[in-house]
Automatic annotation (TrEMBL):
Pfam hit, one: MlaE
Keywords: Membrane, Transmembrane, Transmembrane helix
InterPro entries assigned: Permease_MalE
Hydrolase as UniProt keyword: no
Name of this chain's protein: ABC transporter permease
Protein source organism: Flavobacterium stagni
Length: 248
C-alpha cells in the first residue's frame, strides 16, 4: 500500500509538470507574475544566503586549519579545502536544502492557502489553467537561482579567507595559493548543473504539495512540513546521482 501511494504521488507529480505547459496564461499577465516571484523567491532569499555562506565559509577554513596539526602539511591546503568544500557541496547542495525550507515552505503555504480559500477553483471556473498561472512563474523565476549560488560561492570563499587570515591560521598569499592550486574549471560547471536541477525541484515539489493538499489551515502547515522533507530528500538523492554521472 505504501509503495502504491508513493507511485501515485510520483505519477501525479509528472502529470502536474506536463499540465503546467498546457494552455499558457497571456504574456501580459504572466510577466507581472514572474517579476513578483523573482522578488519573493530570489531577492528575498539573498540576505539569509549571504549571511550563512560567509560564516560557514569561515568555519570551514578555521576547522581545516585546526586539524592541520602536522607542521609538514603546507598551510595553503586551508584555502584548497575551503574552495573544494564551498564550490562542490556547500554552495549548491547545503544552500538548496536551506532554500527547501525557506522557499519551499513559502510556495507550499501560499498555494495551499489558495486551495483552502477556493481561489484555485475560481481560477478554473474562469477558464484559467491554474497550474500554469501558479507554478510556471516560479519555475521561470528560479532560472535566476544559479545567480544566488554564485554569490554563495564567492562569499563562502571570502568568509574562509577572512577566517583563516584574520584568525592567524594562514597568510593571505598562502590562502590564495590554495584557492588556485589544482583548480578544475569543470567543478564550477558541475556545481551550476546541480543548481539548475535543484532549482527545478525547489519550484515544482513544494508547488505539488500545496496544489494537491486537502483540508484547512492546519493541513496547510502539515503540507509545508511534508514538502520540506520531500524536497530535501529528492535534492540529496539527485545530488548523489548527478555526482556519480558527472564526476565519477
Amino acid at each position: 500500500m505504501i509503495l502504491l501511494r508513493y507511485l501515485t504521488h510520483i505519477g501525479r507529480y509528472f502529470l502536474m509538470i506536463r499540465e503546467v505547459f498546457v494552455k499558457p496564461t497571456k504574456w501580459s499577465v504572466m510577466r507581472g507574475l514572474i517579476f513578483k516571484e523573482i522578488d519573493d523567491l530570489v531577492i528575498d532569499s539573498l540576505g539569509i544566503v549571504c549571511f550563512i555562506s560567509f560564516f560557514v565559509g569561515g568555519v570551514v577554513s578555521i576547522q581545516t586549519a585546526l586539524n592541520l596539526t602536522n607542521p609538514l602539511i603546507p598551510k595553503y591546503l586551508i584555502g584548497f579545502a575551503t574552495r573544494q568544500s564551498v564550490i562542490l557541496e556547500f554552495a549548491p547542495t547545503f544552500i538548496s536544502i536551506i532554500m527547501a525550507g525557506k522557499m519551499g515552505s513559502f510556495i507550499t503555504s501560499s498555494i495551499g492557502t489558495m486551495r483552502v480559500t477556493e481561489q484555485i477553483d475560481a481560477l478554473e471556473v474562469m477558464g484559467v489553467n491554474s497550474l500554469n498561472y501558479l507554478v510556471f512563474p516560479k519555475m521561470v523565476a528560479l532560472i535566476l537561482y544559479p545567480f544566488v549560488i554564485g554569490i554563495s560561492m564567492f562569499l563562502g570563499i571570502l568568509g574562509g579567507w577572512m577566517g583563516g587570515v584574520y584568525g592567524g591560521f594562514t597568510t593571505s598569499a598562502q590562502f590564495i595559493q590554495g584557492i588556485q592550486t589544482e583548480f578544475i574549471p569543470f567543478h564550477i560547471a558541475y556545481a551550476f548543473i546541480k543548481t539548475i536541477m535543484f532549482a527545478f525541484l525547489l519550484a515544482t515539489i513544494p508547488s505539488y504539495h500545496g496544489y494537491y493538499m486537502k483540508g484547512g489551515a492546519l493541513e496547510v502547515g502539515k503540507a509545508s512540513t511534508v514538502s520540506f522533507v520531500w524536497t530535501s530528500v529528492v535534492v540529496i538523492l539527485s545530488n548523489y546521482i548527478l555526482t556519480q554521472l558527472l564526476l565519477a
